[in-house]
Amino acid sequence: HTYGITSDPLTQFACVFSALIHDADHTGVPNSQLIKENSSLAKIYKDKSVAEQNSVDLCWDLLMDSNFDDLRTAIYSTVDEKKRFRQLAVNSVMATDIMDKDLKVLRNNRWDKAFTEGARGHESKVDAVDRKATIVIEHLIQASDVSHTMQHWHIYRKWNARLFEELYRAFVEGRSDKDPSEFWYKGEMGFFDFYIIPLAKKLKDCGVFGVSSDEYLNYAMKNRQEWEDRGLEVVAGLMKETQAKLLSEKKATEAAPMVEFKL
Fold first, then answer.
1. Which of 24, 35, 137, 183 has a beta carbon 3.0–4.6 Å from 55's, enabling a disulfide?
2. What is the CA radius of gyration of the chain?
3. Residue range 123-138: mean pLDDT, rounded
């Protein structure tokens, strides 16, 4: 019922590796801003999944370093295994780019083909199982990316606050046109309704996670209700805390003594 995932250590480690590296070297702003700024990364990756491709390239190069010879030997032992591991890692990290409309359409089509009744057509049983495994892994890494929304309210609040601070800093620094406090409450409601809860339902529908999927969905729905009830109060607190933190940092910087360097 896991489409071979639980009996394949290479696939399992590819999922862990992808979750570990997927935001490496993140700059604190979304791909749309990197593209708008015409950054060097946006040029390199031709405005497609900029941050995600950068994370993969940096971490793959690091994995290839001689310091990790033993680790690589433990992950794969043949050229084919290395190729499969890289394909799994790349595909998983790319799945975390949920803002790319083209990639979203492709993923939705794959899901429909894999799990919609009677959609298999002339596809072989092996290909059908591989397709299901692929789409399950994509949704698993997406769920990992936003896992705080499917855990206890205090966990959700902790990471929600950190994301708010990151986006508010970008706004203050002129790297975003939008003050997050103006859309945070309604934005989170929409995020739960149109992404988090549907994602949790897919995890349940695919059948891979057994009764654990009920827990993910229940936490998501509880957090959504809690946010509806307390979100406005939370946003006001986030704004107050973040502004105070930035002000404190500014004062500390201004109070720092000047250092003279003599040649």
1. 24
2. 21
3. 86
Q: Contact, 19 vs 141, CB < 8 A?
A: yes
Q: Distance between CA atoms of 93 and 17, rounded to whole angstroms?
A: 10
Extract the tokens encoding 148: 């705080």
**What is the arithmetic mean of pLDDT over 26-36?**
96
Distance, in Å, from the CA atom of 238 to the CA atom of 221, rounded to the nearest integer, reads 22
Distance of CA 112 to the CA centre of its chain: 22
User: HSE on the CB side for 243, CA within 13 Å?
Assistant: 9
Distances in whole angstroms, Cα of residue 205 to Cα of each of 80, 198, 201, 218 = 32, 10, 6, 14
Residue 134 · residue 91 · CB < 8 Å: yes
Q: How far lies 146's CA from each of 19, 163, 220, in Å?
A: 11, 11, 10
Q: Six-digit token pair at 15? A: 């999922």
Residue type, 76: Y
List the one residue out of 196, 188, 95 whose CA is nearest residue 146.
Answer: 196
* pLDDT at residue 248, rounded to an integer: 94
Residues 39, 44, 45, 49: is their CA dihedral positive or negative?
Answer: negative
Token pair for residue 67?
């310091």
Residue length, the chain?
263
The residues, ordered by sequence, that sit 6+ positions from 31 with a Cβ below 8 Å of its Cβ are: 42, 47, 49, 50, 51, 52, 97, 99, 100
Q: How far apart are CA 118 and CA 129, in angstroms?
A: 14
- What is the pTM for the complete model shown? 0.88
